[in-house]
Amino acid sequence: MQVKRVATPAVTPAPDAEARIAEAAGEIVRAIGEDPARDGLIETPGRVARALLELTSGYAHDPFEILGTVFEVPAGAPAGDLVVVEGIPFHALCEHHLLPFPGVATVAYVPSGRIVGLSKIPRLVDAFARRLQVQERLTAQIADALNDALAPAGVGVVVSAEHLCLAARGARQPGVVMTTEAMRGSMRTDAALRDAVGRAHARSIERREGLHG
Fold it and tell me: What is the pTM of this model?
């Protein structure tokens, strides 16, 4: 089966990225009236630089390579069976304010000849999350990458996240959760499949709340 290569723009940090980000972070500290040389702030610019590079490290990962090793559907597996990976945690960085939006993703697909190893799907979510993002695009990118790489009968992705740009600034509404969906193929036309994915996502949210409640 021929699969499409996922189009992903190559973004490589500058060789002196850490030093440049640290310098900029020091300027921010000075601009708000603080002293970057005082105890407690001396190492802050460097920490900010390393944190930002880690939070945007997904640019270095090619989604097609992550999903490149695929397997044939096991013999005897009925056509139309649903594969669901639920409760995938992630931390993304909002491109509008450079503030985090942590969340959880559920990824499902209906195989059409090919399946992918379990670990690949959380890695795919992480690769797209660790970029400058908006939640709507993140959700669509995960769905499109899986759809392009596996050519399944259907793909469904549901993402829920709390955005610090809403919780900690502006409207200052902590606890507000945004949920986005991206459905492809049979997931878009089959209500029963969509409901199954929705129930799986709801379970993952309940478990997460139970752990942190």
Answer: 0.91
* 1-21 average pLDDT score: 75
Kindly name the residue from 27, 95, 136, 206 that is annotated as catalytic: 95
pLDDT digit string (tens) for 53-112? 999 999 999 998 999 888 888 776 666 789 999 999 999 999 999 999 999 999 999 999
85 found inside a domain: yes
- Which of these, 208, 192, 115, lies nearest to 159 by C-alpha position? 208
The count of domains in the chain is: 1
124 sits in which H/E element: helix 120-129
Q: Is residue 17 part of a domain?
A: no
Q: Which domain holds residue 149?
A: 63-212
The answer to whether residue 8 is domain-embedded is no
Q: Indicate if 201 belongs to the active site.
A: no
CB 93 within 8 A of CB 133: yes
- Residue 58 is given by DSSP the state G
CATH number of the domain residue 127 falls in: 3.30.1130.10
**Set 65, 96, 136, 173: catalytic member:** 96
Q: Of all helices (H) and strands (E), which one includes residue 115?
A: strand 114-116
Look-up of token digits 């902590």: 174
